[in-house]
Structure formats: structure tokens, C-alpha cells
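Convert to structure. Protein one:
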Amino acid sequence: MVRIHVGQPFSSSTRRSSHLQWVFFVREKPQESPVLKANGPVFGLFRSAKHSEANPPPSKEERSVAAKLTNVDFRVIDAAILANASDRWLKVARVILRTEEALGDRFPGLSYIFYTRRLMWLVEQGRLDSQGNLESMRFSEVRIPAQAPQEEGSSQEKLP
């Protein structure tokens, strides 16, 4: 297989789409595979981690909704994030999207942006371990630490 990056001259198999960089893997002899004969020489498509997208800032509406949350609401949100985490490494995107699905009816004005910031707060408090860049939730992971610190009362996090 040959790895081809965006920017190298290779007909129409390399593409640039908005802020994404795509890397194509091309099989040198497509005639060896009936699937590749029918569908062309592209064997795999992977997104390059070089150009990972950072989470956007919260909107005015979301900041307004977050400002009205109570300590009880923050505890519910924290508990949902921790319930969707595990003692093994999980992608932040997976934890956040499951949290958003679980709490969407209760907090309809909050999006993955808020939940990601709250997850980052839990990491800062030592209630989750992390690896990777938490600003890019597809390229970071979290887990519950072996010795999770005791909850000493949840504090509110004001969004910028």
C-alpha cells in the first residue's frame, strides 16, 4: 500500500475539505481485489490528527442557560459524565455524546461544548484522568482514576 497525503500530486484521490486534511491509502495493484476493481483504487481513508478541530466557544444562549444552573444541576451533570466514563480509556466524544443524550431532555439548552468544559473541570479536580488534547474531543480520552477523590461539594463553573 502507498500512503498519499494531501498536497502530493495524485489525481483526484486527494481532497481538501474545509479545515480537514484527508490521507488516502491506495493499493498498488487494485486488480488483486474484486471490491477494489469495482470501486476504484482507494483502499482506506483516514483523517489526519494534525488538523484536529478544537471545540468552539459556547454561544451566548448556552452561556445564558449555564448561568442559571444550580449546584444540584451541576451535581447531576457531573454524575452523568462520571456514569458514562469507565475505568478504562474512552474517547471524550463518546462520554460527552452519551451524557448529552442522557441529559438532553432535562437541559435542552446545553450542548456538547458545555459538557466538554464540565468534563475538563472534572479532570482538573482529579475526578477523571485524561490523555490527549481535551480541546479536541475526538483526539482525547478519559477514565476514572483508580483512587477517585471524594466529592467535596460541587462548585459551579462559569463559562466565559
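Protein two, convert as well:
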Amino acid sequence: MVLALLICMFMLAGCGQKKPEIKDVYPLIEEYLTAQKAKTCTGDVTIDSLRVNSVGDFIKEYGGWPVYSDFEVTCHSESITSTWKSTDDCKTMTALVRQTSAGKYECFIPEMFQQAQDMLNNMDFNKKP
């Protein structure tokens, strides 16, 4: 009984992992945003602005801590410049962060979110029905 209670407590607290601080996740979010924009950019990617606002509480269903940030990331290619901006409400999750078995933190997006993002990136909005 006591063992089961301890296991539940660890799961609710992120399996006993220490919640990352903003300074821990800032470089991870920079790397994540650059990599995400690079998927649809044939040129150079720049982070024009980034402010990590907070790290939320561990979400057991997703296996990580949500990171909320404001950002602006731009793709500079020969033919076009496109910018990806966060929403202005600071309530939109940028990514999740989890702790690896080696004790380091890493950014990730749950598979279901990544699939939806990939689908949106591949849509042709100029195509007529």
C-alpha cells in the first residue's frame, strides 16, 4: 500500500524529476524553433525574438512540462521571407520539455500534435476546391 502511494506521488510530480527552470529550457526552445521552421524553409532561419514566459506543471499524459513563450522566427530564402509568430496571449504552449535518463532536458512535441502540425505545413491553401 505504501509503495503504491509513493509510486503515485512520483508520477504526479513528474516521476520525481526536477521541474526545469526558464534558464534550462531557453536554449532548448531556441533550437526547437529553429529546427521546426527549417523544415519548411529553403534558406536561413533566424530567431528575431524569444521570451520564455514560464514552465508549467508536469503533464502526465504528455510526459513533460509545457513551456510557454513568445517568439518570432523568420525564414529568409531567395524568393520569399516568411515569419512564424506565437500568439500574443502567453497561454499557448510552445513545446514540452522532458528529462532524459541521463538527467538532461530535451524539447519534444507529442506525436499527435506533430502529426497535426505536419498536416498543416503540407496543405496547399492556394489550391481551389
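The radius of gyration is 17 Å. Strands lie at 44-55, 65-76, 81-85, 93-99, 105-108.
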